[in-house]
């Protein structure tokens, strides 16, 4: 499994805007693109998606730019990831990966489906608790934060 470029750069654009400040004038596409090392066209595409999703707002004109639509503590990373790339495992996953037959040969008793469902639960546990504010921490602080998240059956996801 890999994170898509849209997900990675979308989160990075939001972090960049959060560092600029919720109440700031905003950052322009060229400023964001240069700071994150992506083309202006790609930054514009990602910011358009984030704007349509309600995470950022844009102002036109000489003093224009992109800003966060909400304070960083109210932007849930799981919601952003859903917008930018979707979930790893959706309930209709088996319908689109049935092979050459109409119904998967393992549709009644599928250990693989159980594995993907468990992976999705673990991912949801982390992403539903993480906010953009959390991502403003340094790496050591974020590692400590991640260790506090309980996994299934109350076990820690990371030790």
Describe this structure in words.
The protein is mainly α and about 160 residues long. It contains seven helices and two strands, in the order H-H-H-E-E-H-H-H-H. The protein has a single domain, classed as Arc Repressor Mutant, subunit A (Orthogonal Bundle), CATH 1.10.10.10. It is about 45% helix and about 5% strand. A hairpin with a 5-residue loop joins strand 1 and strand 2 (about 65-70). Helix 1 (about 5-20) crosses helix 3, helix 1 (about 5-20) packs across helix 4 (about 75-85) and helix 2 (about 30-35) crosses helix 3 (about 40-50). The mean pLDDT is about 85.
Please give a handful of descriptors for the protein shown.
two-stranded antiparallel ribbon, 47% helix, mainly alpha, Arc Repressor Mutant, subunit A, 2 strands, single chain, 159 residues
Lay out the secondary structure.
Elements (H helix, E strand, L loop, with lengths): L4 H16 L8 H8 L3 H13 L3 E4 L5 E4 L8 H8 L8 H4 L14 H17 L11 H9 L12
Antiparallel strand pairs: 1-2
Just give the CATH class: Mainly Alpha
The N- and C-terminal alpha carbons lie at a distance of 22 Å
* CATH structural architecture: Orthogonal Bundle
CATH topology: Arc Repressor Mutant, subunit A
Proportion in helices? 40-55%
Number of helices: 7
- Tally of strands: 2
Q: What order do the strands of the largest sheet run in, or round the barrel if closed? A: 1-2
Instruction: Say which CATH homologous superfamily is assigned.
Output: Winged helix-like DNA-binding domain superfamily/Winged helix DNA-binding domain
Enumerate the spans where pLDDT stays under 50 for 5 or more consecutive residues: none
């Amino acid at each position: 499994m890999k994170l898509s470029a849209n997900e990675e750069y979308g989160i990075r654009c939001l972090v960049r805007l959060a560092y600029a400040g919720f109440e700031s004038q905003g950052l322009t596409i060229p400023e964001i693109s240069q700071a994150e090392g992506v083309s202006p066209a790609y930054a514009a595409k990602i910011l358009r998606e984030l704007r349509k999703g309600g995470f950022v707002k844009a102002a036109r004109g000489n003093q224009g730019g992109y800003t966060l639509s909400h304070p960083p503590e109210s932007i849930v990373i799981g919601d952003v990831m859903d917008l930018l790339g979707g979930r790893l495992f959706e309930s209709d996953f088996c319908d689109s990966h049935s092979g050459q037959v109409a119904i998967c040969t393992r549709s009644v008793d599928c250990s693989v489906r159980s594995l993907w469902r468990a992976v999705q639960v673990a991912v949801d546990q982390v992403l539903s608790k993480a906010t953009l504010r959390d991502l403003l921490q340094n790496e050591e602080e974020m590692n400590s934060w991640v260790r506090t998240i309980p996994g299934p059956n109350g076990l820690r996801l990371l030790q």
